[in-house]
């Protein structure tokens, strides 16, 4: 773990795996991975070129299996479900500058807008 207060922190992006980087049409087990979505590999490569730390943020528990599949597909990443730049004594929530998730609802200060999106 780095010294969070003093060390420079790179820009960090936490990206969900299924439905965001990989095709997803329902859970089919830990050994089933969808194909990379069009443009995902290139977008992650561009983020790497821009100096981002890429964290794969997934509910899948077998990090080694996920890492192996991503490497086989040529998808760049730095960490899976961890961030060594995490603030000390923080929770398990991955610290990032940006989060990308296919099920996310962006909060812009208006709970009525959130309800419209969630309850539609």
From TrEMBL:
It holds the Pfam family Hydrolase_3. This is Haloacid dehalogenase domain protein hydrolase type 3. The keyword Hydrolase applies. It comes from the Archaea. GO terms for molecular function: hydrolase activity. Gene3D superfamilies: HAD superfamily/HAD-like. It comes from Ferroglobus placidus (strain DSM 10642 / AEDII12DO). Keywords: Hydrolase. SUPFAM superfamilies: HAD-like (SSF56784).
């Amino acid at each position: 773990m780095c010294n969070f207060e003093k060390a420079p922190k790179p820009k960090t992006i936490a990206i969900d795996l299924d439905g965001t980087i990989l095709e997803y049409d329902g859970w089919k087990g830990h050994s089933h991975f969808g194909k990379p979505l069009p443009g995902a590999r290139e977008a992650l490569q561009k983020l790497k070129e821009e100096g981002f730390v890429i964290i794969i943020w997934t509910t899948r528990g077998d990090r080694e299996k996920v890492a192996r599949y991503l490497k086989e597909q040529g998808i760049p990443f730095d960490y899976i479900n961890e961030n060594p730049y995490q603030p000390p004594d923080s929770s398990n929530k991955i610290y990032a500058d940006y989060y990308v998730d296919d099920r996310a609802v962006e909060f812009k200060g208006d709970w009525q807008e959130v309800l419209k999106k969630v309850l539609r």
